[in-house]
Every structure is written in C-alpha cells, then in structure tokens.
C-alpha cells in the first residue's frame, strides 16, 4: 500500500513537486494542471494516501448529532451507539461488539471549549494548526458569538444534502492567522483551482440559489466581522471573499465516516458457519431497513476537505482512479480502477456512479452546472453523434413512444 503523503507542506510550496509515484503537470490553458503516473499501477492498487490541507464536518451534519472528531472526522459514536440512534431503538444490541474500532477511552475534549477529538494526537494537531484561533472557550454555544452567527447564517442558506461548508474557509483563515510563515500558507492555498469572476458568480449561484447575491453579501459581512486579519486583507474584500467561496465550492472533496459501516465490513470479513453467517446477514439487512425507515439516507458523519494532489485530478466519464476513505477518517486513498501506465494521466469522475451511465448530454449538463467545463474524454468524444437531449427527455420520449404505440394498437384492434 502507498504511504501517506506526510510531506504536505513542501509538496504544497511547488505545484509541480512530485512524489515517487505521481507528478502534477501543466497541460494547457483549458484543462490547466493534471496528475500523471510516474510508474505503473495495477487495477485495485493504492496510488497514494493523502491528508487534507484543511477539513471540516458539515454544519447541519454536526447539528444533527453526528459526532465526529473535530480534526480528522473519525466517528466518535461506537457502532452500537450509532445503530441505536439511527434506528431509533435505544435497546438495540449489536452482535460481535469487539469488531467496533471506536475507542471512547482515547477521546479527548479541548479543555477550554469542550470540542471533541478522537485522540490526544488529533487534539494537539488541531491546536498546533488552527484551533488556538478558533477556540471559543465558554462561548462555544453562544449564538451571539461572531463565528456562531456566521455558522448559523450558512446553515440558513445551504440546507442538506450539504455539498460544501463555510467551515473550510474559516479554517483556512485560522491556519494562516496562527502560522508563523503566513506567506507560505497563502501560497499553498493559491495552488488550488481558481476561476474567473463570472465563473465565481455561477458557483455562488449554484451553492446559494436565486438570492445568492444578497446571501453572499451577508456571509461576507459576517465573515469579515468574525475573522478579519490584516495579513489576509485581500480575502476580506468582496471580490476576494467570492474567490475564496468559489475555491471551496470547486475543490472541496466530500468525506464520509461511519463506525457502523466499519463494523459491517468487519462482520462481512468474518469466517462463520453457514447458519451463523445467514443469521448475521439477516440481522444487518433488517438493521438497514429500520435505519432507512427512521433516518433515511443520511447515515454518515459527513464533511469536506481540500486535498492538494486529489484536486489536481481532472475528470473523465471513464475514470481510471477513485477516491475512498477506508480508514473512516480524513485520509483519502486514491485507488486505480484499471491498469495505469507510466506517463498516463490519472483521472477521477466528478459524477457519481449513476450519473456516469446517463447520456452524454446529461453528463455535460451536470458538469457545466457544477464545475463549469465541457468534458472531452474519450467516452464523450465517441458519443458526439448522440442527440442533444438529457436522459430524462430520452425517458419521456420512450414513454410517449410506448403510449403512441398502445394507441395505434387499440385503433387497429377496433378496426
């Protein structure tokens, strides 16, 4: 397995800095940069493991009691506690509780504000990087604190399902404010994808809806009141705030962690007699049905992070790599979906699995609206002669065709 990219800071100073396995290259003025393999990778192989520069739990997710480590987003509930809450059954007992990897005895709270961490290491890492600036002490739950006002304003304009978080912007500011070498960190953040003014407005519109200009103005005002710093004055003018907003909206990678999911995977790996296996599988199937009825699809601790290498990956509708979070924390594993040759570009899909199977026109519509580009991957090029209709229009057309066919059949029968 590939080792984590721990030399994050030297990697970030130079956007073309390489690891032993991959390198970032400039492609052209349209695609910008891309990530390329320096050696061959076999299907299923881990290409790299990367820590985020900053990460944060989504604010609604946190408000709804999805308990996660403030630093690494590891779930803090045991699998059994998680299953009880999600299923609405406080008496539920999970078989094989020893398979749960959550260790409550290691959890630590910030002594000033009581924010929780999964370990002393995470608490110290947060304190060293940004938490000394963001610790609210006894004001942690004070709705009138400027940072809490900003969080509440964000929740009021960006409802679940959440796709981004103003917390990433808050932490970016805190990291720079707390750092000794402020210019170093500002240069680091500048390596993430930037946009034109018109594109930034489109991203804001997508995240905030029709009233985005007024909402963006409110968020900017609260952001400035809560965090202003002379070293970052360009981030606090309206244009700079919009750019920061677009950076997070474009580059943020979703993160999902779950102690219950880890427990289920561990159960799947158990070697059991057939009858016990059937009983365990039946228990898990029923548990997920109960959770679906009680909670719906929101099962994980969810957040987002900024990853330097991963954000260098361009999109393809037939990707050769995929990001995952098997450690159930913020460590991103990029795995090969097919064999990759030295010098080949490593591409991920910005679309989910179902969206990838939709028509070329549908895929382009989603990518234009969310990422502001037109895909020219080999799959899209091969489908250039397809009609310019979305998958929904295709389905409606097929349905209309079936209706017309039925009517013709009826007419013929009448004759």
TrEMBL record:
Residue intervals of the SET domain: 20-351
Compartments reported by the entry: Cytoplasm
Gene3D superfamilies attached to this UniProt entry: SET domain
The entry's keywords: Cytoplasm, Metal-binding, Methyltransferase, S-adenosyl-L-methionine, Transferase, Zinc, Zinc-finger
Reactions catalysed according to its record: L-lysyl(20)-[histone H4] + 3 S-adenosyl-L-methionine = N(6),N(6),N(6)-trimethyl-L-lysyl(20)-[histone H4] + 3 S-adenosyl-L-homocysteine + 3 H(+); L-lysyl(36)-[histone H3] + 3 S-adenosyl-L-methionine = N(6),N(6),N(6)-trimethyl-L-lysyl(36)-[histone H3] + 3 S-adenosyl-L-homocysteine + 3 H(+); L-lysyl-[protein] + 3 S-adenosyl-L-methionine = N(6),N(6),N(6)-trimethyl-L-lysyl-[protein] + 3 S-adenosyl-L-homocysteine + 3 H(+)
Region Disordered, annotated ranges: 385-415
Enzyme Commission number(s) from the entry: 2.1.1.359, 2.1.1.372
Entry keyword Cytoplasm: yes
GO BP annotations listed: definitive hemopoiesis; methylation; negative regulation of gene expression, epigenetic; negative regulation of myeloid cell differentiation; primitive hemopoiesis
GO cellular component, one term: cytoplasm
Entry GO MF terms: histone H3K36 trimethyltransferase activity; histone H4K20 trimethyltransferase activity; zinc ion binding
CDD domains for this protein: SET_SMYD5
Keyword match Lyase: no
UniProt cross-references to PROSITE patterns, sorted A to Z: SET
Domain of life: Eukaryota
Protein name as catalogued: Protein-lysine N-trimethyltransferase SMYD5
Organism, scientific name: Fundulus heteroclitus
Organism lineage string: Eukaryota, Metazoa, Chordata, Craniata, Vertebrata
């Amino acid at each position: 397995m590939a080792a984590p990219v721990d030399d994050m800071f030297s990697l970030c100073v130079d956007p073309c800095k390489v690891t032993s396995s991959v390198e970032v290259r400039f492609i052209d003025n349209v695609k910008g940069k891309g990530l390329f393999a320096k050696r061959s990778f076999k299907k299923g192989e881990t290409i790299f493991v990367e820590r985020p520069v900053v990460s944060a739990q989504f604010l609604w997710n946190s408000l709804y009691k999805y308990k996660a480590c403030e630093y690494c987003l590891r779930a803090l509930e045991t699998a059994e506690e998680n299953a009880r809450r999600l299923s609405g059954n406080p008496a539920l007992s999970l078989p094989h509780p020893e398979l749960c990897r959550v260790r409550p005895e290691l959890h630590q709270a910030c002594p000033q504000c009581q924010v929780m961490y999964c370990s002393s290491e995470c608490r110290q890492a947060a304190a060293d990087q940004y938490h000394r600036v963001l610790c609210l002490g006894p004001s942690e739950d004070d709705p009138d604190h400027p940072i809490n006002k900003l969080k509440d304003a964000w929740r009021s304009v960006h409802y679940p399902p959440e796709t981004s978080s103003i917390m990433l912007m808050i932490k970016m500011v805190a990291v720079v404010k707390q750092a000794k070498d402020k210019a170093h960190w500002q240069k680091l953040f500048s390596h993430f994808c930037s946009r034109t003014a018109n594109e930034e407005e489109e991203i804001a519109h997508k995240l905030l809806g029709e009233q985005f200009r007024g909402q963006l103005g409110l968020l900017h005002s609260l952001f400035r009141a809560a965090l202003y710093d002379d070293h970052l004055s360009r981030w606090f003018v309206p244009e700079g705030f919009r750019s920061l907003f677009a950076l997070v909206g474009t580059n943020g990678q979703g993160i999902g962690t779950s102690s219950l999911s880890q427990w289920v995977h561990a159960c799947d790996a158990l070697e059991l007699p057939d009858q016990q296996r059937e009983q365990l599988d039946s228990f898990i199937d029923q548990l997920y049905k109960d959770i679906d009825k009680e909670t719906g699809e929101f099962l994980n601790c969810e957040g987002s992070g900024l990853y330097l290498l991963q954000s260098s990956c361009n999109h393809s509708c037939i990707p050769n790599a995929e990001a995952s979070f098997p450690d159930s924390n913020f460590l991103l594993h990029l795995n090969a979906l097919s064999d990759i040759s030295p010098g080949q570009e490593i591409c991920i899909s910005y679309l989910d699995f179902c969206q990838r199977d939709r028509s070329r026109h549908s895929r382009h519509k989603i990518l234009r609206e969310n990422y502001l580009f037109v895909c020219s991957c080999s799959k899209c090029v091969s489908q250039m002669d397809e009609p310019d209709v979305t998958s929904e229009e295709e389905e409606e057309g097929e349905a209309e065709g079936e209706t017309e066919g039925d009517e013709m059949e009826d007419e013929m029968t009448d004759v």
